[in-house]
Amino acid sequence: MGICESQGNVDKKPVVVIVGGGYGGIQCAKLLDKTGQFFVILIDRKSYFLHNIAALRATIEYDYAHKIVIPYDRLLTNGCVIQAEVTSILTDGVHVHGRHDPIHFEYLVIATGSSYAFPGKIAEIESSSAINLFNNLQEKIKQSEQILIIGGGPVGIELAGEIATDFPGKDITLIHNQSTLLQPKIFQDNFYARLQENLEKLHIKIILNDGIQLLDEHNKSNMKYIEGRQTYVTEKNKRTITADLTFLCTGAHVNSKSIINGPLKVKLNPQTGRLIVNDYLQVDGYDKIFAIGDISDKEAKFAYIATEQANYVAQLITLIDKKKSYPKPYQKHLYPLMLLTIGRHGGVGQLPTSNKTLIGNLIVKHFKSKDIFTSHYRAAMNYRSENHMETNSGYLKKLNSVQSILAFTEQDARDLLAGLPAKDIEAGQDFI
């Protein structure tokens, strides 16, 4: 069990334990730590925060992994980060591997997140191993001629775009078992059409309404990707696909083992496997136990939503501890936000507005594709940005985090477009 700590709880402050150091976990920990009101303990099995929104860029750009694998050691001022595996979560403490007694708390935030096949996410405990995995994969991509990506969700789409942009000679096939990419009928029709059009411009072959039945040996939970020449036959149309590198991008698995091993198991929704929470993000029946992000049975599963939930819970814990009135219940987002990069030069997005404003290559490039919020998250972890962005003015200053677009309007988008230098408006780039 490794421990990185700034100081012990010498002032006997109320202890907040946060299980899971993903987007929601680090945000909640930072906010509570900043109050000076609590002793915050963040527990994660890894020694680093993975900025996995940018993980797919690390598959094609050498050593980009160094920028997105960020140690936890500078995160907290008044609390500590414990590197350990949580084996069970109780109602008054958590058990970690290698320690006999539980770590007790006054407040608990469960932010265990979800797991996904590499390179979408990564399970390596130490940062050096994680970085090596990304760098080794780059060599495999370079050497491969035919690449198959199974799953046309956000990870599959962005992985295809990254590879096709940097390696335009690759034969890339993306197969998805839905009638559209992503999930049908969530976004406006033009969004799906533009998304597919942009991928096909990069000569990516897209197969919809079909799938591939993998062998049992390829369905193992620790499978990262499939190396070596394989020939597949699709399930419905019996099409033959040959690939020498295959990626499995077919969905996340909720990290609930530590919950299943404890009394909160009965609070898991049997349909989703996620914790049932009330309108204040409290686990059903417990005033001082909260669940946020992918483990919470509330709202869609995106990093920006986990961060919004973390903001709310940090505020609520502070108020409860001061014996003040509760704030208004947590408000779910009414309209979905989606920003999909297709390589370095753009992508397609839909703003979270009632009219479902569509944005194209130009704004997505400036908002996400160029830096993928890496500078923002390195700064959040108190590390210097290694990707110095140019000094921006006007609306470009808004484009520093996923949260900033939640209040971004169609008029903002038009003002942004009008304020950009002419040299940035390249042929083929679009807005709406």
Could you explain how this protein is built, in words?
- With 432 residues, this protein is an alpha/beta fold.
- 25% of the residues lie in helices and 20% in strands.
- It contains ten helices and 21 strands.
- Helix 1 runs parallel beside helix 7.
- The chain is globular and about 60 Å long.
- The N and C termini lie far apart (51 Å).
- The C terminus is likely disordered.
SSE topology sketch:
Elements: E1 2-5, E2 15-19, H1 23-35, E3 39-44, E4 48-50, H2 65-68, E5 69-71, E6 80-83, E7 86-89, E8 93-96, E9 103-104, E10 107-110, E11 114-115, H3 127-143, E12 146-150, H4 154-166, E13 171-175, H5 189-201, E14 205-207, E15 225-233, E16 240-248, E17 253-254, H6 257-260, E18 289-291, H7 303-321, E19 338-341, E20 347-350, E21 358-359, H8 361-369, H9 374-380, H10 410-419
Parallel strand pairs: 2-3, 2-10, 3-6, 10-18, 12-13, 12-16, 13-14
Antiparallel strand pairs: 1-6, 4-5, 7-8, 8-9, 11-17, 15-16, 19-20, 20-21
Helix pairs in contact: 1-7
